[in-house]
Amino acid sequence: MSVAIVTGASRGLGRALAGELAARGWDLVLSARGAAVLEEAAAGLERAEGVRVVALAGDVSSAAHRAALVAAARGLGGLDLLVNNAGVLGAEPLVPLAVQPAAGLREAFEVNVLGPLGLVQEGLPLLRASAAGAVLNISSDAAVVPYATWGAYGATKAAVDLMSAVLAVEEPELRVWWADPGSMRTRMMAAAEPGEDLAGLPAPEEVAPVLLRLHAEDLPSGRYTAEGLAGSPAGGGTRR
Asked: Its family (predicted)?
């Protein structure tokens, strides 16, 4: 049975990715800050899909929490996929860099950059031992496009992109993907730009199966977008 860790799994894209993986028979270790919502999500997946789900509430910026997540995966048999999805904006709603609070920027780097790196470091022994170990880091268009007010959040995602690219070079036996899901109807998007109409955006449940083509088709390490994956023909990759 394959095992995945999914962070930020209580709602939005994280919950959608967890649901899609569970439907495909994966056992899961789920993380989020809110215990009640996370436990509700985990219980629902166990009932609906019949898989093993461990829910651990906590903050990925905590080394102790990261160690607990990897220990839980070890208890389920190993770690085949690490999904670093948890993230914070740094300010809600978003603000120009001229008034970006230092505390918010610091938190964004701790959660969005140091958290994923720490989980990779903690999980590497299990990922290396897997026949198909992979890391999926959730990126953003803001990592590569200079949108007004998205500077702090975008800086963290740009850091994750470069970190992912270096990891792919340093760990050639793993798959490392950094993927931009695009704008979605999520609580985070509403908090970022509360005046925007999100009605025309896709739901996370529409995006999750597109992103998981990366694993299902064993695509090469690299940066991907949901839009590009949705428009590309199916076809398996070749693991190095």
From this structure: Belongs to the short-chain dehydrogenases/reductases (SDR) family.
